[in-house]
Amino acid sequence: MQISEINAVVADEFEAVNTEISRELSSDVPLVEHIAEYIVSSGGKRLRPLVTLLTGSALGCRASSLITLAAIIEFLHTATLLHDDVVDTSELRRGKPTANHKWGNAPSVLVGDFLYSRAFQMMVRIGDMAVMERLANATNVIAEGEVLQLMNVRNPDLTTEDYHKVIQGKTAMLFAAASGSAACLASDSDTLRQAAHTYGIELGLAFQIQDDVLDYSGNAETLGKNAGDDLAEGKMTLPLIHTLKHCDADTRQLIRNAIRQGGTDDLAPVLAAVQASKALDFCRGQALQHRQRAIDALADFPASPAREALIGLAELAVDRSS
Questions:
Q1: CA–CA distance from 43 to each of 25, 93, 314 (Å)?
Q2: How many CB atoms neighbour CB 35 within 10 A?
Q3: What total number of domains does the chain contain?
Q4: Quick one: DSSP state of residue 321?
Q5: Does any domain span residue 74?
Q6: What's the CA gap between 130 and 135, in Å, rounded?
Q7: For the residues of 219-248, what is the DSSP string, one character each?
Q8: What CATH number corresponds to the domain at position 64?
Q9: I need a labelling partner for 38 at 20 to 30 A (CA). Which of 66, 90, 99, 113 fits?
């Protein structure tokens, strides 16, 4: 399925989410509203709120609170992006200058805080303790994941296990919050709630591994960021972890030095080493395994267009070039 076909399943609800997002961005402080609108409307696919809408729809939820929940998920995601770009000193996201590059670090961090606090105000309006518990726990885990990633910047000794711990916290947990909290609104079944959570985790892992593959195989025009950004920031991701295990001593030292120093001076030989080690094929295989686990988690969901769209979204998470 194409993303347009997936969106079409919940097109009316998606439009309602966009309306709610615009309404909730209002602020008496013009700079807050300006930066928030810039980052929220900067061209993202809004996959996480889409997961919320599709999960709720697949489980028969028609409550207006599902729309609010999807907007909350987008606000939480946007807040993490604002903070991430400051931490990473990024200058490009989704093909546009980052907010911190345009307005500076301090306004970006504070507007991220505004989006977090607005999201929690909206959670209170929903008034479902199971939803609030999931979202509060997810927000905490995401913050821990970001700190863990920061601790491992320029660390060439990062293990596969540590890598998975980072991406489960910083990426997969919000997908799980999107699907799991929607299931809380839709069903009292612990089995279905756990299945929705598992779907989100596995979808997020597949999505992030593919993202890390694209960093060594894509280009700025399709990615909306510069290829080699992870290397420039000194981040060890799965392609490099695999390459280090399957290259000669000289290449291993080259990669270790490149990670310790950051920058892209050694990008060309590192890319060559990644290709020679078949790391991208290995990583794609890992992403495909997570994708299949996500699809398998939907086995108990009733048949519906929304369930098929969730399957299509899992497939798209790996079969994409941006």
A1: 17, 9, 20
A2: 25
A3: 1
A4: -
A5: yes
A6: 9
A7: -HHHHSS-TTHHHHTT---HHHHHHHHTS-
A8: 1.10.600.10
A9: 66
Q: Are 99 and 139 in contact (CB under 8 A)?
A: no
Count of residues making up the chain: 322
- CB-based contact 83:112 (threshold 8 Å): yes
pLDDT of residue 95: 74
- Provide the b/e sequence for 104-133 (b: ≥16 CB within 10 Å): ebebbbebbebbbebbeebbeebebeebbe
Q: Tell me which amino acid residue 265 is.
A: D
- CA–CA separation, 258 and 247 (whole Å): 15
Q: What is the token pair recorded at 249?
A: 């001593």
Q: What is the pTM of this model?
A: 0.93
Per-residue DSSP letter, 61: -
What amino acid occupies position 108? S
Question: Where does the pLDDT of residue 41 fall: very low under 50, low under 70, confident under 90, or very high at 90 and above?
Answer: confident
112 assigned to some structural domain: yes
The HSE-up count of residue 145 (CA atoms within 13 Å, CB side) is 21
Q: What is the DSSP string of 277-299?
A: TTHHHHHHHHHHHHHHHHHHTTT
Yes or no: say if 69 and 52 are a contact pair by the CB < 8 Å rule: yes
Q: Give the pLDDT of residue 223.
A: 47
* Model pLDDT, residue 288: 98
The DSSP secondary-structure symbol of 128 reads: -
Q: Which domain range does residue 223 map to?
A: 3-315
Instruction: For residue 267, tell me if it sits in a domain.
Output: yes
| The dihedral formed by the CA atoms of 95, 98, 99 and 101, expressed in degrees to the nearest 10 | -130
User: Cα angle vertex 134, ends 131, 138, to 5°?
Assistant: 140
Query: d(Cα 262, Cα 55) in Å, to the nearest integer?
Result: 40
pLDDT in tens, 227-259: 688 999 899 999 999 999 999 999 999 999 999
The neighbour count for residue 322, using CB atoms within 10 Å, is 14
The residue assigned the tokens 């890598």 is 163
